[in-house]
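Hey, can you fold this?
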Amino acid sequence: MSWRVANACAERKFGSATRKQIIMFLADKASDDGSGIWCSKGTIQRHTELGETTVKRTIRDFLKEGILVETGARGCKNGFTVVYRIDLARIEALELTAEPEIETGATVDPVQTGPGTGATVAGVPGPPRPPNHPKTIHKPPSREREAAEDDEAEKILAAYPPDRLRGRAECLSRIREVLDEGVDAGDLAQAVKAYATESAGFTRSKVCFSDNWFKSGRWRSHVEGIAKGREKTKAKEAEMLAGFANWVTDKHPLCRHITPGQIDALLAAELVTQAQIQAAGLRS
């Protein structure tokens, strides 16, 4: 995140509220030089709540106008994601949103330039009024939210083998990018632990240091494996419940081995009814 790029975009006119909303979202992902913007059009659409066609058209327009520049691509679960850079020179050439300061020249009885004192009551001056300023001072995001995100990234990085940690700041930044992409924090932490386990005992020449591991996306295969394992577990559970349901409907003697938790799961999945459970002698 770069406040420099975000403020530069906030102070310029982009022609419409939609264009401004999209460029501000991209600026929030940029480095101080405007580079390193890695987010898919689907991500932009979800966060801005704009239409997919609108997002794609606006990105095309920004590219034609030179406001955005494609600098490469990164692999992702759906293929690849284009990496963009905001051209700060083009941004600075746009019209400012702030009203220009008007010089009024000298007067015979010039207006005081300092803050006013406000109304007086019984000769006591009111509180001072600070002068208006044409530039908006942008309020930083919630410290609590930032602290929670940093704490989450720290916990994930802490699972990496300590003898292979390198580039701590870059690693934390990469982890936040991965989480922004929609990857579950728990899955990413499990991916780190899985790599630590499989590479235990490797010499330093055979392992991947943390900055390269996150940068090259080597976590993806582990996260995908975790997701596949979860799907297999769900399929096995569904198959097991289906078997239990057959036992219940047939009043099979093996019904007595069904646990109370499994009975609740059968009812929740609507595979059997309460009457069938009672008929099988599982509950009175």
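Oh, and this one too while you're at it.
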Amino acid sequence: MKRIVTIQDISCFGKCSLTVALPIISACGVEACPIPTAVLSTHTGGFKGFTIHDLTKEISPITEHWKTLDMSFDGIYTGYLGSKEQLKIVSDFIDDFKKENTLVFVDPVMGDHGKLYAGFDEDFAKEMVSLVKKADIIAPNLTEVSYLLGEEYKENFTDDEIKDMLRRLSALGARTVIITGVRRGDKLGVFAYESEKDEFTHYFRERINDTFHGTGDVFASVCSSALVKGFSVKEAIEIATDFVVECIHHTAPDKENHWYSVKFEECIPSLVKRMF
């Protein structure tokens, strides 16, 4: 069985980050090992009065113990990291645990819709570049691409502009770059670039006029699992995109009651069929 360690926060309610990653990675047939960077009572999108307990000081003791156990991982998947200090600690973790066949998948979570999330600034984005340089695969959305490259954000980029950004991101170090949230008329999709093949690929589905929290985490969890299991980049982005679309379609009729995330649990049977 393949094994992924995933490093990000956990929202006790709301289904983001580890609350999404653990069940989805497991459903894909991959052993999931979490390192929580913070515990939140709920995610921060739409909830008021949520609590946060930072776990930065707990990360290094966990990794030091793991070193004594001679732990190894087929994949290292990083998501939301809340501070420059955490970026440095996770960077050190990659140095300590990455082996020849370990796939490092970095989702450089920083913002969306042209804006950084609360608590982040341009200095944080510059520090994120240092972590991105250690990745084999990165999966930013267009907002995160803009901050990583110092580009002005816009909602629509041409194919040539996307390809140029993919090449420039790959030049930072990642052999594969996946850009999510690319719009093409009534469609929304993903562009990818594999530097070793010098090959571009893309995949689009219908654009749904509904927004749900956590769909980026769903995509990254499926995509990283598929890649660790040996699926091609093209196959991985198709499986991940299809699953996100299915989850949104399944949840949209009940959005009044389930506005905080998608009902991915009830869609897992179709994911299992694709992954095995």
